[in-house]
Every structure is written in C-alpha cells, then in structure tokens.
Specification:
heterodimer, A: alpha+beta, 21% helix, B: alpha/beta, 6-stranded mixed sheet, 5-stranded parallel sheet, 16 helices, globular, binds iron/sulfur cluster
Chain lengths: 78, 383
Amino acid sequence: MCLGIPGEILSIEEAQDELRRRGRVRFGGIVKEASLACVPEARVGDYVIVHAGIAISRIDEAEAQAVFALLEEMEQRE
Amino acid sequence: MKYLDEYRDADAVRRLAAAIGRAATRPWTIMEICGGQTHAILRFGLDELLPPEITLIHGPGCPVCVTPVELIDKALAIAARPGVIFCSFGDMLRVPGSRGADGRAADLMAVRAAGGDVRVVYSPLDAVALARANPSREVVFFAIGFETTAPANALAAALAAREGLVNFSLLVSHVLVPPAISAILGSPDCRVQGLLAAGHVCAVMGAAACRPIAERHRVPVVVTGFEPVDLLDGVLRCIRQLEAGRAEVENAYARAVADEGNPHARRRMEEVFEVCDRSWRGLGRIPRSGLRLRSAYAAFDAERRFGVEAPGAGEPAECLSGLVLQGLRRPTDCPAFATRCTPECPLGAPMVSAEGACAAYFRYRPSHSRQDRGTTLKRGAAR
Ligand code: SF4
C-alpha cells in the first residue's frame, strides 16, 4: 500500500496553480504521468519516489551510496 | 532499475546478514511496522538469513488490513447505488464486509458482479479525472491509507475543490502510524524491543517524527526502506543500538527520508484533513489515530453525501487478525490459516492484501517449509 517506486523525471509541466505541477516519470521501461505538486524543488533528471500517482520525495544521490560505503568500511576494519 | 537493483544485490545482502550475525550476542525481537516491508522480508526470505537470536515480528502497517468492517460495509452500500462510480485501490476489492444472514460476507467484487460500477484506480487523481469526464455520475474514491497516501488523497480533494467538481467525494478511512505503534508498545504483552519505522510514512512525516516514540517507549527506531539491503541495514542498526543499550532514532533510508520529511506534502495534507479518533480492524478504537476531512471540505465527504449507516458489524470470531496485527501471533498460529482462510476465500483482511502478514505467509511459506530461500533472493535480486 505504501509502495513507492523510484523513477526519473523526464519532463516537467509547470503550471500557474502549484497544485497542477506534473511531469513524466520513467520507471525502468515504463513512463507515467505523476503529480510533482509536493516536490517543487525537483528538476528534470532528478529521481523521485512516486506513490499513488504523486511524487512524495526526491532521492538524494549522495545518501543513496551511504549503505555501500558503510559495508566497505566495515569490511576493511575486519 | 536505478535505486532498486543495487539494493537487491545478493552479495551485499549476504555481507549485511553476516554483519548482523557478528553484532547479535543475545536474542532480540524487532518489529517492522509496514506491510510492504513484511512482504519483502518473506518474499526475499530475509528472516531466514538472520541468526536464530533475531526474531522479526510483523506490525499493523497494512491500511487495507486495518480498515474497519463498518467502513467496508459503507463502501459496499455506496458502490451498490445506481449512478455511482466507486473507485478504489485494487487491494480493497476482496476485503470482506460483515457477514450477512446467510453467513457470507460480501465484498466490492461481489457488488461489481451484481452490476455495481466498481473501478480500480492507481491514483486518487485518476478518480478526479473520472469525475471530470462523467459529470452526470457520482464518483466516489475510497480514501484509505497512512501518512504516505494522505497527501495524494488531499491533493485529489483540493483539485476537485478548485475545479468545483460537485460529483466527486471521498470515503475517508485514513489512519496514522504513531498512535497505533504507541498502543502496541504500551500493551503489557508487548515483546517488541526495537522498531523498523516505515520508510515512506517517514518520507512525508520526517525521521524526527519518530523521536517521541523512541523516547517515550525507550526503543531504538530505525527509519528503514523496502529493499533487502535496506531492510538488513535497518536490522543491523537496530541490533547495534540494542546491544549498546541505546534507544535513538536512526535513519537508514536517508536517500528518500529527510529529518524534517516533506513539508509540502504535509501542508497539502493539513489543508484538507484533521486528526480524529479511528477504529482499526482488529485493534479497536485508538484516540487521535486517524484523519477526516476538515469542515471546509465537508462537501466532499461521501459519508455525509450518501448518509450511509453501517449496521453493527461482525467479524468472524475465528480470525486472529487483531493479534496478528499487533505481532502477538504469527499467521501460521491461526487455526483457519490456509484451510478455511485463503486469498481466494479470505476470512480476514490480512489474507487479502499482498502486504497483509497472512497473505505473505500463504504465498511465500505455503508449507511453512524453508525451501528455496537462497533462490528466492537471487531471483528477486536479478529483477
Ligand atoms: S489466517 Fe485468515 S482468519 Fe487467520 S488471522 Fe489471518 S486473515 Fe484472520
């Protein structure tokens, strides 16, 4: 239910009304429309988590690597 | 897919499982809150990669599973009305309402078979589009979900209001995670020592929102994602805290969760919804544990618009869903599991939703056997 899929923003349709900010988002091979009303900072090329047709969060690339860096560090220590 | 495949890497999973084995010196019991996490744990066999000291128990985080029977009955009554297009997420179609005189429980699927116009939508915004396209019909959306889904449902209501759509309404059954977790942790039977917090709830509410729970109940809370690497990273951090006697909020899903969450999404949600008491299927009434439409949005409230009253609802006595949802029993402890209760013919909601614990055990542990566990992971990892 709270499933959220990471996808890449391909294009953005800006709107006068911020509620209507939308974009085309690519999930693997599938491209879907999604609301970008809740991620006003998101730009083309950014990855967002889309849930029930709206983007709820922008993915932070630097943080995405953290767990792998941690694993490396852990194993070097051992 | 980027941000998915690398978190299913079998090698990283093995290394994390080994690290957990080294970190755990005593038995620990950890609850993952979200049904999506439960599903992933069973699908990838992650519980079976953990050392025997570590027990994962499954929390109440499946909105489908906790939607009370009264609301299902109201949905059935509204969906059966002529002129109504009733829209819902797919999972809700098989959730049984209360039992009729013949001892059988109806569901939305049955309403559809009897001629009701019940449609599965992927987003509440699709329901708004249907209302726009069908001005002579009443379009009702079954707005269930946790904090993750509330911004989407709020956005639908706000857009409908902007457009002056008079034929759109929401049947709201929104629930909030922290009050339910507090209720579970406050119960004298509770065995939970650490929590994996639901990543996407936190994406909206913020990691910081978990702090009161960690402090009040003195449990470590690790904000955790949904992929195998995320889940084991969450377990590892939780165990390290437990072993060190710490009870802090840690964020193992920082790529998607900021400390302050998503303030834009929260603003949408707060404009449209306000906190209220809610009943949870199997858990009973919990104060301030849900959301309802604010009075400014009362025109979009399907319960008011259709004036439906649900009769006193009955749940099958043998369904243990309340205990399963609190992590006090495993699905396989239920005498009806896989016999009188199956996904084809469910007695309780946790057997319906893919994220319900009973359905997850039915699908991935059919004979409670431990077969195939390595393969499951690799198969998943290759996807
Ligand atoms: S197996 Fe079926 S009857 Fe038993 S607790 Fe789960 S949903 Fe209820």
